[in-house]
Amino acid sequence: MRNDKKENGFSGIILKREKQQFQIKMYGQRDKSNQLAIHIDTKFGTASMGKIFVAVAIMKLIEQKKLSLETTLDNFYSTDLKEIDGDITIYELLTHTSGIQDYFDESIEEDYEQLWQKIPNYSIRKNSDIMPLFVDKKQDSKRRGEFIYNNAGYVLLADIIEKITDRDFDQVLKDLVFDKLHMSNTGYFELDNLPENTAIGYIKKQGEQPRSNIYSIDCKGTGAGGCYTTVMDICNFWDGLFSYEILSEKSISEMIKKHAGNEKEQCGLGVWLTDPIKSYPYIYIEGCDPGVSCISLFNPLEKDIFTVFSNYEDNVWELARNYLVEKKNSI
Prior knowledge:
Shape: globular
Largest sheet: 9 strands, mixed
Radius of gyration: 19 Å
CATH superfamily: DD-peptidase/beta-lactamase superfamily
Structural class: alpha+beta
CATH architecture: 3-Layer(aba) Sandwich
Strand content: 15-25%
CATH topology: Beta-lactamase
Strand order of the largest sheet: 1-3-2-15-14-13-12-11-10
Distance between the termini: 28 Å
Helix content: 10-25%
Oligomer: single chain
């Protein structure tokens, strides 16, 4: 394994594991100013990929009978949620079918940076900090029950984890998931206090020099995303999750079946589903923010993994599609 200069403009790391054999390629720099290369244990921001960790924690609380998929928001909130219906269920939040007006609607909005004209990004350090961006929005009842990708729902899920456990959700995830599955390089870090060997996210716009994303994303991740991790930690996550080290086989089976979706996307509970390739069904997690793009595919049958992290918003989805086409052609 070595670090190469950017290949076709790509900056990041690619991991492929098949039959427990690893192939890892690294390109570019984690820190341009100091010309620091990307390494196998470089931590990358993962944006919405972190939703899977929130979903795992919720499923664990369900196993512990502290809530259920049918539990409604009014069990945890009185008037705090203002315009949001109190009878929305945990299931609806997990499956993006709650109809909540999101603070960033990816179906109609393109510039995530515009959020911080209302609230400065450096002030977002816990779930409750971002809730003012959506709790006052007038709800459209016609949206409810329809699959519409929703960040706000996962902010509420993380906030519910905190209410049930009386602890910060990222500490719950550290104890429940990261420590148990030997994900020692994974955590929710603050942009203005990143640990060593963390990739700085860079924003590329045509005709401009790349710039850091420090003013463009939440200062610290929420239930909607923002976790930092490494490709090897994600391998540990997939292996541990599907060895039932955290959740039962029944809970995992519930998570990876189709619950909602449209003609383009199929949604489980915290994960996405691909169309099966004969005996090769894949599930995946992904994320995209200014200066962040990532995807990780996992085959529960063969235990194959394909993970790509980029700190330049590179097209990781094309690489994933090419990988699936390659797998299909090899059968």
